[in-house]
From TrEMBL:
It comes from the Bacteria. Residues 14-202 form the Nitroreductase domain. The keyword Oxidoreductase applies. Keywords: Oxidoreductase. This is Nitroreductase. Belongs to the nitroreductase family. GO terms for molecular function: oxidoreductase activity. InterPro entries: Nitroreductase, Nitroreductase-like. The keyword Transit peptide does not apply.
Length: 227
């Protein structure tokens, strides 16, 4: 079935997506979340193996996660489930990473040398930025690298499809930096890797932190054409 007629809606859904860092407390119906996930599960995967698991958390479980992971992060008790970043940053990635951090701290009104303020801002990750729904994307640890591509596909679908329901998201790999308490609350076996968390809810569009629109490199910087 052709989707040419819906081209602009699709473009807007992709180009308008951003990481929301303050949500309204408005509840999201369970049926809505499950419908989004059901649609997103049309994501491609190698030989249709669908290696992903999605944990949908609300209510008391959400609150317990927030409390225990915030305590671990505040005390510096990291327990990374896997290495996300390279051991040494290089350009242009280092500059991009610094810019988004400095831009966000500037919006919060946090000076560059205000390390306590920066820590408080980062800890907001572990409140799902106020979103009532948290999602965790996991898979069995013995999968090869291809399965990480598959899981990224379904995460992208969730973030895009959510916008069709008036909802927004923030992908949060930061939860995987505190795998021990997440694993405890969700009762996850060691053979499952916590790839990422995600906040889901209704965006507070008036919040200053949601005015941040991160830059993207022009295609000339990363597209290599072969003729």
């Amino acid at each position: 079935m052709s989707v040419v007629g819906d081209r602009q809606a699709i473009i807007d859904a992709v180009k308008g997506r951003r990481s929301i860092r303050r949500f309204l407390p408005t509840p999201v119906a369970d049926e809505t979340v499950l419908e989004i996930i059901e649609i997103a599960a049309r994501a491609p995967s190698g030989q249709n193996m669908q290696p992903w698991l999605i944990h949908f958390v609300t209510g008391e479980t959400r609150d317990a996660l927030c409390r225990q992971v915030t305590e671990a992060a505040d005390s510096g008790e990291r327990s990374d489930d896997y290495p996300y970043f390279p051991t040494e940053f290089r350009e242009p990635y280092l500059s991009r990473r610094r810019k988004v951090g400095f831009d966000l701290f500037a919006i919060y009104g946090i000076e560059r040398n205000d390390f306590e303020g920066r820590k408080r801002a980062l800890l907001r990750n572990f409140q799902f930025f106020g979103a009532p729904v948290g999602l965790f994307f996991t898979m069995e640890r013995d999968w090869g690298l291809g399965a990480w591509i598959d899981l990224g596909n379904i995460m992208t679908n969730v973030m895009t499809v959510a916008r069709a329901y008036g909802l927004e998201t923030c992908p949060q790999q930061a939860w995987a930096e505190y795998g021990r308490p997440v694993r405890k609350v969700l009762n996850l076996p060691d053979q499952h890797v916590i790839v990422s968390g995600m906040a889901l809810g209704y965006a507070d569009y008036e919040a200053k932190e949601n005015q941040l629109v991160t830059e993207r490199a022009p295609h000339q910087d990363f597209v290599i054409r072969h003729c």
